[in-house]
Design brief:
Largest sheet: 7 strands, mixed
Shape: globular
Number of helices: 10
Distance between the termini: 29 Å
Number of domains: 1
Order of helices and strands: HHEHEHEEHEHHEHHHE
CATH architecture: 3-Layer(aba) Sandwich
CATH class: Alpha Beta
Helix content: 40-55%
Mean pLDDT: 92
Low-confidence stretches: 198-204
């Protein structure tokens, strides 16, 4: 088994105070909560692997207060913040490639996690085993190989997915795919242009957070409109990110 691709653990302290206000994190949370409310069978417990600072887990706990919450993270530095944010959740430091839980969870989330792991198929198999029959998995990943840039390198990604690749990998371990859509679709042209800037390799990790409050507000409103379209049944074929919901038979 290959060593985990190194991650800049100081990024947790950098990201935590920005997540509550940054358009991308806020928009992704709203999309995830809509999917959980509209398309997922009612669940009594939820595990988020790679929970980072607990930003998503806190939102899920607020929306579904009767659900038992679990979070796992490869790095203890992230768990320090997550425990403070979600004191009612149970956390564990864990390598998802070594996960051994069996039919324990109704719902598992992996939000921008598996693109960091070489052995993504192994992780998906472990998650399949950890989910109860009839339970669900919700995944988000960065999309389109042609969007690869210095930002992916700085974020320690090992891949960006195509829709077909993610669907096939999820199906291959036994899941039935329920729903797939891209998101960050209306902003994709701007995202592509920003990643082709001359200095993209210099400070790519931070540059996408260093935007004006007006631009941040505008992007968030565009994403609000995108969510309206998704609620109306539109599934975007292209986007900076890809969301997939699947069920264990």
């Amino acid at each position: 088994m290959k060593e985990e691709k190194p991650f800049f653990v100081e990024a947790y302290d950098y990201l935590a105070p920005k997540e509550d206000k940054h358009w991308w994190f806020c928009a992704r949370n709203r999309i995830l909560l809509w999917v959980l409310s509209a398309k997922v069978t009612p669940f009594t417990n939820f595990l988020e692997i790679g929970c980072g600072t607990g930003f998503v887990l806190r939102a899920v706990g607020t929306q579904f207060p009767d659900s038992e919450l679990f979070g796992s993270e490869f790095y203890e530095e992230g768990l320090v913040i997550a425990r403070e944010r979600v004191p009612n959740a149970e956390f564990v430091q864990m390598d998802a490639r070594l996960m051994t839980d069996f039919e324990k969870y109704n719902l598992v989330g992996a939000f921008d996690v598996i693109e960091h792991i070489e052995e993504d198929a192994l992780v998906l198999r472990n998650l399949f085993n950890a989910i109860k029959c009839g339970g669900s998995i919700l995944i988000t990943v960065p999309q389109h190989l042609w969007m690869w840039s210095g930002a992916d390198v700085k974020a320690c990604h090992v891949r960006r997915y195509s829709r077909n690749e993610l669907v096939q990998k999820v199906k291959s371990v036994g899941f039935d795919v329920v729903y797939v859509s891209s998101f960050v679709s209306l902003l994709l042209p701007l995202m592509w242009l920003s990643r082709r800037r001359a200095n993209k390799d210099c400070d790519a990790l931070n540059s996408e957070f260093q935007i004006s409050s007006r631009l941040n507000f505008l992007f968030e409103k565009v994403m609000d409109f995108e969510l309206v379209l998704m609620r109306l049944g539109i599934r975007f074929p292209f986007g900076g990110s890809l969301l997939l919901l699947a069920k264990k038979p």
